[in-house]
Design brief:
- With about 375 residues, this protein is mainly β.
- The protein has 2 domains: about 5-255, Sandwich (Immunoglobulin-like); about 255-370, Orthogonal Bundle (Neutral Protease, domain 2), CATH 1.10.390.10.
- The chain is built from 5 helices and 23 strands.
- The strands form 5 sheets. Strands 8-7-11-5-4-14-17-16 form an 8-stranded mixed sheet, with no helix packed on it. A 5-stranded mixed sheet has the order 19-20-21-23-22. Strands 3-9-10-6 form a 4-stranded mixed sheet, with no helix packed on it.
- A hairpin with a 4-residue loop joins strand 16 (about 220-225) and strand 17 (about 230-235).
- Helix 2 runs parallel beside helix 4 (about 340-350).
- It is globular.
- It starts with a strand and ends in a 6-residue tail after the last helix.
- Bound molecules: 2-acetamido-2-deoxy-beta-D-glucopyranose (3 copies).
- One 2-acetamido-2-deoxy-beta-D-glucopyranose binds near residues 90, 141 and 142.
- Its main location: membrane.
């Protein structure tokens, strides 16, 4: 896999053809790469010798349409993550989090060299501390940028954390299944190897593979979709703003949508099963009012171009305020349970205004909103 990236005055200039073309070639049936041996890191917290800057995550949650109660063994997750990191010390050891993932291959590329040379990394796992140690034969040099590449497979969770399957019945009695993530506080590591501590913030570029009858949603708007073989579609998402790993989210399934624009042109949408879409008007109007209110009150513009609210049939808490994709238990979003709705919505939306970076001006947002596609 040839991939070039140049680090230039704070910006990674990627070879786009490599990035979005051949990069995500399916890994062959590689054996598991984890070696036996004493684990070289003895703390629960990660070392601070490596800083993640940018994750490129490619995920295929491959799930059947049988409901979650008989979670079929064939449901699986295939993943590949590229992490652009900066070495903060000279070190041969990279430690990151991973739980329940089968690592197929891990490699490292020094991005400061003019000729990219990919080095294999030795991989050790520590299930008890939910960590992977990646060992390089050649030390990483403080101040240099590297690209860490890990291909792996995983599974659907049997709880409401990580990646799990939920299901609902249509009025005709059909069962529909959806794939949902819930990462707070420490379940992102069940879906991709990552530096899963809130202070180790980075930006995320996600690609999700889905079947063509489904849609996918994530924190950011889609850049484009691409048809693959076998009725599969690859949804490529815009790069997120800098955030903690537990705020990444995606949902795959069939949903209907209703949308409105706020006064500064953020697109607010409520997603629900199609037979429930007529119960979303209240949530949609309240969400738009809430965004407008907080922007005025806090004098801070909501930093993302869109906000999706999704009603989910199986969801542990009332709501999870993933940036740009707030997931709700159905009863907290759909009308009918009116009383719980208002409080839940306000609470989950105000938490979106954490320390926000500079947000676009109203005029910029309003002029681009008509150019972006979901
Ligand atoms: C998805 O899972 C099914 C059932 O295990 C399998 O037959 C199929 O090959 C998988 N698809 C891909 C693209 O891996
Ligand atoms: C890190 O390694 C480089 C190159 O080998 C060396 O020049 C530098 O002094 C080392 N820095 C530290 C802090 O050890
Ligand atoms: C929503 O539509 C369904 C039929 O699709 C209907 O049975 C239900 O009563 C409607 N609910 C509301 C609140 O209008």
């Amino acid at each position: 896999m040839a991939l070039s990236a140049v680090y230039l005055s704070g910006v990674y200039l990627w070879s786009l053809a490599a990035m979005w073309g051949g990069l995500w070639a399916k890994p062959e049936n590689q054996p598991e790469a984890v070696l036996e041996g004493p684990f070289p890191w003895s703390h629960q917290r990660l070392p601070t010798n490596i800083r993640p800057d940018h994750y490129f995550i490619h995920l295929h949650p491959n799930f059947s349409s049988t409901p979650d109660s008989d979670l079929s063994a064939s449901d699986s997750l295939t993943g590949h993550v590229l992490i652009l990191v900066t070495a903060l010390d000279n070190t041969s050891l990279i430690v990151l989090n991973s739980k329940g993932l089968t690592i197929k291959e891990a490699t490292l590329t020094d991005l400061t060299l003019s000729v990219a040379v990919q080095m294999s990394l030795r991989v050790l796992g520590s299930p008890s501390s939910e960590q992977l140690a990646l060992l390089s034969d050649k030390p990483l040099i403080a101040g240099r940028k590297y690209q860490l590449s890990v291909s792996y497979s995983g599974s659907f969770s049997r709880s409401y954390s990580g990646l799990y399957k939920a299901s609902y019945q249509t009025p005709d009695g059909d069962t529909r299944t959806i794939a949902v993530t819930n990462f707070e506080p420490s379940s992102a590591r069940q879906v991709f190897p990552c530096f899963d501590e809130p202070s180790m913030k980075a930006v995320f570029s996600l690609v999700v593979v889905r079947r063509s009858q489904h849609i996918s949603l994530s924190n950011m708007p889609q850049r484009f979709s691409k048809h693959l073989e076998e009725d599969l579609v690859e949804d490529h998402y815009q790069t997120s703003i800098r955030m903690s790993s537990y705020l990444l989210a995606f949902v795959v399934g069939d949903f209907s949508v209703s949308s409105l624009l706020t006064s500064i042109c953020s697109q607010v949408s409520v997603f629900a099963a199609s037979h429930q879409i007529n119960q979303t008007d209240h949530a949609l109007l309240e969400a738009v009012k809430t965004l407008d209110f907080y922007e005025e009150y806090l004098q801070i513009i909501y930093p993302l171009p869109k906000l999706d609210l999704v009603a989910l049939p199986d969801f542990e808490s009332g709501a999870m305020e993933n940036w740009g994709l707030v997931t709700f238990r159905e009863t907290s979003l759909l009308i009918g349970q009116f009383d719980s709705l208002r409080g839940q919505l306000w609470v989950s939306l105000v938490t979106l205004w954490r320390k926000t970076p500079s947000a676009p001006l109203r005029s910029e947002r309003c002029s681009v909103i008509f150019l972006t596609t979901r």
